[in-house]
Write a structure and sequence with these properties.
By secondary structure, this protein is mainly α. It is built from ten helices and no strands. The protein starts with a helix and ends with a helix.
């Protein structure tokens, strides 16, 4: 399965690969001064290429869209309309995405969930749309893409080789 459908669904909801890559860049630039935005885009697309990420994204977006159309049964409809703080299912789904490149993404996800930077903030502030799932899924994708970059760092290789 290609990333085309995932990218198209994200785009329809106002999210581009570039906007997620910008978040990844902000997360990793301090640790990788030679990092490029193109590498971040590649990493985002690698995450989006994972079938389990695509399925999670499709599910979350569908639930957000159904809530916008008022097509969910109660009490779920009210919970999503109000973005109930104790709901937590949105974060649970995003954590599945976050962990595909190891648990290192957990701290990045927590940071992004709290700080709401970049497109995550834009999604969170839109009052005319429901993004209960999408804002967390974007944070999860960015955290996973950031983890992927961290795992590919030449600095990390020295520990695997047992050198100083």
């Amino acid at each position: 399965m290609s990333t085309d459908l995932a990218e198209s669904m994200l785009s329809r909801r106002g999210v581009s690969v570039d906007s997620i890559a910008d978040i990844v860049f902000k997360l990793q630039q301090r640790y990788h001064p030679k990092l490029t935005i193109q590498q971040c885009e590649e990493s985002v697309r690698a995450v989006l290429g994972k079938r389990e990420v695509q399925y999670t994204l499709f599910t979350g977006i569908a639930l957000d869209e159904l809530a916008e159309k008022k097509l969910l049964p109660e009490p779920l409809q009210s919970i999503l309309e109000n973005d109930e703080p104790l709901y937590g299912v949105d974060e649970t789904m995003a954590l599945g995405v976050t962990s595909i490149y190891g648990m290192i993404g957990l701290t990045s996800f927590g940071y992004l969930d709290k700080e709401k930077i970049g497109v995550i903030e834009i999604l969170n502030e839109q009052s005319d749309r429901i993004h209960v799932f999408l804002d967390d899924l974007v944070a999860g994708i960015a955290a996973a893409a950031s983890s992927r970059i961290a795992h590919r760092s030449p600095d990390a290789a020295q520990y695997a080789a047992g050198s100083d």
